[in-house]
Amino acid sequence: MDAGQLDNGKRHTDSSALKVPVDVNLKLDELPQDIRLRAIDRLKIGSLRHSKSRLARMLLMLALIGPGILVMIADNDAGGVITYAQTGSIFGIGFFIPFMILMVPVAYIVQEMTIRLAAVTRRGHAEMIWRRYGSFWGAFSLIDLLIANSLTLVTEFIGITFGMSVFGIKPLYAVMIGIAFVLIITLTLRYHNWERASLVVAAFNLIFIPLVLFAHPNWLLVASSFGNWHVPSGFSTLFIYVLLANLGTTIAPWMLFFQQSSEVDKGTVPEDIKAARRDTFIGACIMASVAIAIIILTGTVVFSAHAVGATTTGYNIAFILTTISHKIGALPMKLFAIGLIDAGLIATIAITASTSWAVGEAFGWPKSINLSFIKGRKFYIPGIASMSIAAIIVLIPNVPLGFLNLTVQVIASIFMPAAMLFLLLLVNDKEIMGIHVNGKLQNAASIIIMGVLILMSGLYGISLVFPNLI
After folding, report:
1. Main-chain dihedrals φ then ψ at residue 119, nearest 5 degrees
2. DSSP letters of 126-167?
3. CB atoms within 10 A of CB 224
4. First to last CA, the chain
5. Distances (CA, A) of 317 to 94, 229, 235, 406, 461
6. CB half-sphere exposure, 341, CA atoms < 13 A
């Protein structure tokens, strides 16, 4: 046999080898648990994407729903619900209703950038900062997040304990129930089922929308707030404080880390960006609708019970719930309490996951909800620890919980510009983002948002040092 025949024989053998079918299941079994489960989910998505049937398209749309709606509804956390209730109680119907409409594009613009980062890089937010900017800035952003998350978790347990107290459950038992619920959801379900279960929990957040009808609000007054948008009772320290609190509960550092890591764990790829954007926009609209409903409810029912700026009662969550019960009945008060409990639970689920993802990404530990607790204990423990510490703080006697809640939201808004700066740097990095970098309008909008946060934080600081200046 000559050299040509040998060569032809070799090519024939190679060609035949290429035609040997690949056992997909065998290949999947060779992957680590978290990557294998994510790959299985992606194979299902791919199958639905290539099917032309209406049922497949509907199933695909449902399968791609998740992180965007979750992050936005979890943003209407117990701290947020309390903040909106306090806002309506202190300032009534007016400035803050149009303001919450304005928060829809603000929240969407910020979170949309995390979608593109996740889809293009397949890396979480903390991991990208550590890899791109080094351990110093990585540690800075992580510490920033951990402080903000721990404080925010305190507000979740404030909401859970207050809500459950309406049904006669003592704070210690309320905290234990809350922790147990979150642990069951987080430790027993893999990502896909965890996401679906979390969405079911999040759906109860919508209870606040029909609840507003019990108050029989003056809808003409609500509508007039858009045409007569003005600062109530003057541009005071209190107004700046409450405004910052509302900003802090609309856009917060944990949201950036949560959605990017959630999209990664879900397996989002560039062709999913359009669906993920839709998911996030729908979530932002739901967030604003719930916030507006709560402000209208307390602005109608509680605001008239005291003068504008009477912060002693305006901050008092127990006073707000009692006034709702006295004015429109025990049922609306109990429904409000159920919504408050739910808000605390869904946010605790999301924020503990945010903490776990960030720490896991920073230290190179396993970082997926697809992991069992035994294999992923390093991943789960940071989130569980921060949740437990927050729960203990709430149980400390004589802590001014109403004031603490607003203060946490203010701190979140102060921390946000630093978190957004890293986000902007990453999404404008052509080397990692390619064609998915920010456009000029996206950068301009983001810089304006950062500027407003810095300005309001500065004004609040000045008002504290020089109270008579503003």
Report:
1. -65, -40
2. HHHHHHHHHHHHHHHHHHHHHHHHHHHHHHHHHHHHHHHHTT
3. 13
4. 97
5. 21, 27, 24, 11, 26
6. 21
> Could you tell me if residue 35 is left (phi over 0), alpha (psi between -120 and 50 degrees) or otherwise beta?
alpha
Per DSSP, the three-state class of 375 is coil
Domains and CATH numbers, the chain: 23-64 (no CATH), 67-465 (1.20.1740.10)
Helix (H), strand (E), coil (C) string for 240-294: HHHHHHHHHHHCCHHHHHHHHHHHHHHCCCHHHHHHHHHHHHHHHHHHHHHHHHH
Tokens of 116: 């593109």
Query: What CA–CA distance (Å, rounded) separates 64 from 199?
Result: 13
How many Å separate Cα 262 from the centre of its chain?
A: 10
- Tens digit of pLDDT per residue, the chain (470 long)? 444 444 444 444 444 444 545 555 666 666 676 677 777 777 778 787 778 788 888 888 888 888 999 999 998 888 888 889 988 888 888 888 999 999 999 999 999 999 999 999 989 999 999 989 998 999 999 998 898 898 889 889 988 998 999 999 999 999 999 999 999 999 999 888 999 999 999 999 999 999 999 988 888 888 888 888 877 766 777 888 788 888 877 888 899 999 999 998 888 889 989 999 999 999 999 999 999 999 999 989 888 655 444 444 555 778 888 888 889 989 999 999 999 999 999 999 999 999 999 999 998 888 889 888 888 899 999 999 999 999 998 888 876 666 676 677 777 777 888 888 999 999 999 999 999 999 999 999 999 998 888 887 777 677 666 666 65
DSSP state at residue 215 = G
Taking a C-beta distance cutoff of 8 angstroms, is the pair 126, 357 a contact?
A: yes
- What's the token pair of residue 377? 């204990």
Tokens 């029989």 correspond to 216
* CA count, 13 A, side-chain hemisphere, 354: 32
Helix axes 125-165, 317-328, angle to 10 degrees: 50
CA distances from 206 to 76, 138, 199, 230, 291 (A): 10, 37, 12, 28, 10
CA distance 403 to 206: 26
Which two structure tokens, joined as six digits, stand for 318? 């127990």
Enter the tokens of residue 230. 């003005």
DSSP 299-337: HHHTGGGS-TT-HHHHS-HHHHHHHHHHHH-HHHHHHHH
- Rounded-to-integer distance, Cα 186 and Cα 191, Å: 9
To which residue do tokens 């740097």 refer?
A: 425
